Each structure stands twice: as structure tokens, then as C-alpha cells.
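lol ok so funny story. i was supposed to be doing the assay writeup but got distracted and ended up predicting the structure for this chain instead. priorities right. anyway since i did it might as well share w the group, maybe its usefull for someone
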Amino acid sequence: MNNKLPITKFPVTRWWWIRHAPVTSNQGRLYGNSDMPAEIDSPKEFSALARLLPENAICVHSSLQRSKQTLDAIVGAG
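and the output, tada:
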């Protein structure tokens, strides 16, 4: 057995951080907390992300629409 890894009796939490889809309506300017929509026209990318995530993942997103749009696209593709 590999003694380099610690043995624990506690469950392990794994996190997957996904940045929102690109924002193209900002015309190349920074948008910060402005509620700009995401460009979600890339179904292949969302399908790939959906395959990487665990089946029963708990998803959390910010209140900005680009974050929710990205999550909806990933869930819809999975």
C-alpha cells in the first residue's frame, strides 16, 4: 500500500470550479459586477464539462445571469 497518502475516516469533498461562459456584449471592455449575458453557443464545450462532473454534483452559482446561463447550459448538455 502507498504510505504517502494519509488515511482518513472522514469523507472527502471535491470541488470543481467552472468560470462562466464568455461575455461578448461588453465590446472588449471590463464588465466586473455588471450583469452581462454569457455567450452560450458552444454545445460541445458544455457537453464536455457535463461529462466531467459527478452525477449528483451540488451546483452553486452567483446571482449574475452569466453564471446561471452557464450552469443551465452545462446541466442541459448533460
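The chain has a mean pLDDT of 86. The chain is about 30% helix and 0% strand.
back to the writeup now i swear
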